[in-house]
Amino acid sequence: MLPVIATINPATGETVKTFQSATADEIERAIARAADTARTYRTTTFAQRAAWMHVTADLLEAEADDVAAMMTLEMGKTLASAKAEALKCATGFRFYADNAEEMLADEHADAGAVNASQAFARYQPLGVVLAIMPWNFPLWQAVRFAAPALMAGNVGLLKHASNVPQSALYLADVISRGGFPDGAFQTLLIGSGAVESVLRDPRVAAATLTGSEPAGRAVAAIAGDEVKHTVLELGGSDPFIVMPSADLDAAVKTAVTARVQNNGQSCIAAKRFIVHTDVYDEFATEFVEAMSALTVGDPTDPATDIGPLATEQGRADVEELVADAVANGAEILCGGARPDGAGWYYPATVVSAITPAARMYTEEVFGPVAGLYRAADIDEAVTIANATSFGLGSNAWTTDAAEIDRFVADLDAGGVFINGMTVSYPELPFGGVRRSGTGRELSAHGIREFCNIKTVWIG
């Protein structure tokens, strides 16, 4: 039985549109088309790829309002954040169009030192890359793979989350309309059960996944068995540390945004707020007041701050973690109960006095729920921050130079943001350590992930 792939409006729970899963024959044809295209696409010039990418960016920008409405319908993010995501994707396309050739230029070594007339490293595409993407940023997550992969000369197969099929189909369509060859980027409407056969196909060279830790483990195991390269981004439980020297008003304002962005469903959203005891009470009072004032409701209403969670199961998972924390001694300072009515809504929630026995202490809460922790000093703050198996982003607020150095050195994460919140930028590498994944997306590091770094020695 083929899996259900459908747009279900999380604001109402209504199934808007269903899609037929790809059959085995359709999957085979798509892989064959990708492999055929890869052989000629790798020979196109950077200038040609960049021209296609600029057209794609222009199309996406022109269609941003409609694209935003589609994303809001599929996963519940507010219209304002959805439009911002669409425009960010256009920026990402243009960034790699303008910089890929320089990023992948030959890297020359000292030829004399290796007894050669010439010696250099050359970046060459791997071929067909499978991208397994989540629903929370339906376009940006996929674009941050697609833009560098296409500019490097790879071709892509997108297996998107089953609740954002329209976003998945749109991305393949806009890339095609941008002028890229048939087969350069295709969407596969398949369930998770079909991923293994695609990944094991010898014509597929590598894979990238953004998603849950169990999904990452499964893909990594298959890729390891096939000796194929992977890039994995598997979530996080990011700390947000506030020290006495911080600008407290700015820290509180940013903390709210950092926690409830994308309705709280972001891997790099701050989730654990660790506050020095000297400013804990003041921060907690202001933070709870600000979180309590947020409007939960229709994501198409400009007055809404937090829309519904993307799936019914997602809300149930959030409720379960909050209930477990309370059962283990935690206190709810605001929120903590689903509102009446249709849709998968959950309010902005602050939970304090979380003990190590609670799952929230180490697990990621994928919704607008903030954990509040008191730290006696910087040593305890760092200890609490690192007391999780994740290591994606991290945030610290201080104006003390020695404290900044300490946080940069000792926070065990793929990124450290001082006096600001974690954001993904095309110009900066993005990824995590420990169980937040392996490899990097974005920047020059991201485009090189799916390249063969070929050593060239000429006598």
TrEMBL record:
Keyword set, alphabetical order: NADP, Oxidoreductase
A Pfam cross-reference name: Aldedh
Highest rank taxon of the organism: Bacteria
InterPro entries linked: Ald_DH/histidinol_DH (IPR016161), Ald_DH_C (IPR016163), Ald_DH_CS_CYS (IPR016160), Ald_DH_N (IPR016162), Aldehyde_DH_dom (IPR015590), ALDH_GabD1-like (IPR044148), GABD/Sad-like (IPR047110)
Aldehyde dehydrogenase domain: residues covered: 5-456
Family: Belongs to the aldehyde dehydrogenase family.
Stated name of the protein: NADP-dependent succinic semialdehyde dehydrogenase
Organism: Gordonia hydrophobica
